[in-house]
């Protein structure tokens, strides 16, 4: 083979490897967008929908990301997700920024790589209309996503060392949105609230995987909210990921 042909072959192989790495990155990004609820809250096409429809409290849309993200650089999307503020400094509401800020650099890059594959569609939505009871909610502690993330920044799930790091990380970026920043649930849980995930220690591996994929509890009943969200969001996780979460959660109460 002539030297030129060899050089050409080598660069072709490098290109193919690059394309494969890009496809892997986008596929992982789609998994993250699913399990982190971007798709639940912003829609399959990321074009947004009515999110809160209570004239007394607020009328809010989830943003049409398919139109907004092309106007932002990767660094700006990263910054918006980690801070809970737009580039003009206005804070976002209802966004689980306290969870998004925990994404690793690599996962953030993969997520953005997938977000960029979604074509622009639909219209931009109007800003939130605040109702008369919104002020009262603020007085009771309701916060925008940026302030909430700052308040919760120190409430992380217990660190049980390298052996449990993967399960801890996955639970921090998925389960924490509903089960609380430290996975301990609300201080005074009411029926139907997402509880302290200590309860996971009572599950068998198979029962736990069924719960995460379907929202069906070990007593056979369907969990509130999780019954709808688990099949849509969490069932995309691999069995190894679900087991790493179970192992981490099972270890927490022992400490
Ligand atoms: C619990 C629902 C919810 C989840 C989960 C969620 N979002 Fe949002 N997001 C919203 C709402 C509602 C808004 C509009 C906030 C506002 O107008 O103040 C928003 C706004 C945004 C914005 C700001 C766009 C603008 O208007 O300038 C970006 C960017 C964004 N979301 C990206 C994401 C990504 C990426 C994910 C997943 C990692 C995600 N969101 C998950 C509800 C959600
Ligand atoms: C969209 C919100 C949401 C997300 C995300 C979520 N959960 Fe839940 N989860 C709930 C709610 C609400 C309940 C209480 C349901 C009930 O009591 O019927 C619950 C209940 C549970 C229970 C208790 C079941 C029982 O036997 O009482 C476990 C265990 C659990 N979730 C695990 C997880 C794990 C692990 C993740 C992340 C991989 C996760 N959840 C993500 C909302 C959520």
UniProtKB/TrEMBL annotation:
Keywords, comma-separated and alphabetical: Heme, Iron, Metal-binding, Signal
What this protein is called in its record is C-type cytochrome
Record InterPro entries? Cyt_c-like_dom (IPR009056), Cyt_c-like_dom_sf (IPR036909), Cytochrome_c_Oxidase_Subunit (IPR050597)
Top-level lineage group: Bacteria
Q: Where is the Cytochrome c domain?
A: 17-119, 162-253
Tell me, what's a Pfam family for it?
A: Cytochrom_C
Query: Species name for this entry?
Result: Sphingomonas immobilis
> PROSITE patterns in the record, alphabetically?
CYTC, PROKAR_LIPOPROTEIN
Region forming the signal peptide: 1-19
């Amino acid at each position: 083979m002539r030297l030129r042909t060899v050089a050409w072959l080598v660069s072709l192989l490098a290109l193919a490897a690059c394309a494969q790495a890009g496809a892997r990155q986008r596929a992982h990004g789609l998994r993250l967008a699913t399990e982190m609820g971007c798709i639940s809250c912003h829609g399959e096409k990321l074009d947004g929908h009515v999110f809160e429809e209570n004239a007394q409290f607020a009328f809010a849309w989830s943003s049409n990301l398919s139109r907004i993200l092309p106007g932002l650089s990767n660094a700006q999307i990263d910054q918006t997700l980690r801070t809970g503020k737009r580039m003009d400094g206005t804070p976002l509401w209802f966004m689980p920024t306290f969870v998004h800020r925990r994404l690793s650099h690599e996962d953030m890059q993969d997520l953005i790589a997938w977000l960029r594959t979604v074509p622009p569609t639909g219209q931009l939505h109007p800003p939130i209309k605040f109702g008369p009871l919104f002020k009262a909610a603020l007085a009771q502690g309701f916060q925008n996503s940026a302030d909430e993330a700052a308040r919760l920044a120190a409430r992380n799930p217990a660190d049980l060392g390298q052996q449990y790091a993967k399960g801890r990380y996955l639970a921090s970026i998925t389960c924490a949105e509903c089960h609380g920043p430290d996975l301990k649930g609300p201080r005074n849980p009411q029926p139907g609230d997402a509880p302290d995930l200590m309860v996971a220690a009572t599950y068998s591996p198979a029962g736990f995987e069924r719960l995460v994929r379907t929202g069906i509890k070990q007593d056979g009943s369907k969990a509130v909210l999780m019954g709808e969200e688990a099949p849509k969001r969490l069932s995309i996780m691999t069995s190894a990921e679900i087991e790493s979460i179970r192992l981490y959660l099972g270890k927490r109460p022992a400490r």
